[in-house]
Automatic annotation (TrEMBL):
Protein name, as recorded: Exocyst complex component Sec8
DNA repair found in the keyword field: no
Coiled-coil stretches: 33-60
Listed transmembrane segments: none
GO biological process: Golgi to plasma membrane transport; protein targeting to membrane; protein transport; vesicle docking involved in exocytosis; vesicle tethering involved in exocytosis
PANTHER family, sorted: EXOCYST COMPLEX COMPONENT 4
Highest taxon above the source species: Eukaryota
Domain Exocyst complex component Sec8 N-terminal, residue spans: 47-139
Name of one Pfam family that matches: Sec8_N
Family to which this protein belongs: Belongs to the SEC8 family.
Function recorded in the entry: Component of the exocyst complex involved in the docking of exocytic vesicles with fusion sites on the plasma membrane.
InterPro entries for the chain: Sec8/EXOC4 (IPR039682), Sec8_exocyst_N (IPR007191)
An example Gene Ontology CC term for this record: exocyst
């Protein structure tokens, strides 16, 4: 069906071109002003006929045309809204990417701080154990364990 319309439009273009060439030739070949006036009136009459045909076609298909325009307007509005949403999403994603990059540096710093704090806690635990050595020595003396063993353990904690 689309090929039939294409052929009709092609034929209409050919016939309109032929008519236009015919009019031009008539006007060029005619030296008579009366002949030109007659050709002008004929063209005006044809133009009025085509104008009437066009108006009847528009009236006959007005509802369909109006519906098509409304549908197109609705689709166009939705596409525009979607494009706006995509733009906002893209901007938000770029902002998140930037924030995540900044957060990565902060997280790396916090991780390093955490490692340092863990080491400090381990050292504090060792210091507490060394502080308790005199009490432990006294306790082990009573149980006949040599003080050397406890001192040796203390040295191992320090290193």
């Amino acid at each position: 069906m689309a090929t039939t319309k294409g052929r009709k439009q092609g034929k209409a273009k050919d016939s309109s071109s032929k008519v236009l060439l015919q009019v031009i030739n008539t006007l060029l070949s005619s030296d008579n002003a009366e002949r030109r006036v007659i050709e002008r009136e004929r063209l005006q009459h044809e133009l009025n006929e085509y104008d009437d045909k066009l108006n009847r076609q528009v009236e006959a298909h007005q509802d369909h045309l109006k519906s098509s325009i409304q549908t197109f307007t609705g689709i166009s509005t939705r596409i525009e809204a979607s494009l706006q949403k995509v733009k906002v999403l893209r901007e938000n994603l770029l902002a998140c990417k930037s924030l995540l990059h900044c957060k990565r540096e902060e997280l790396k710093k916090y991780w390093m701080d955490g490692l340092e704090y863990n080491e400090v806690l381990n050292l504090l635990d060792r210091i507490d154990q060394v502080k308790n050595v005199p009490e432990q020595i006294e306790k082990y003396k009573k149980k006949n364990i040599t003080c050397m063993q406890q001192s040796f353990l203390c040295l191992q904690f320090l290193y």
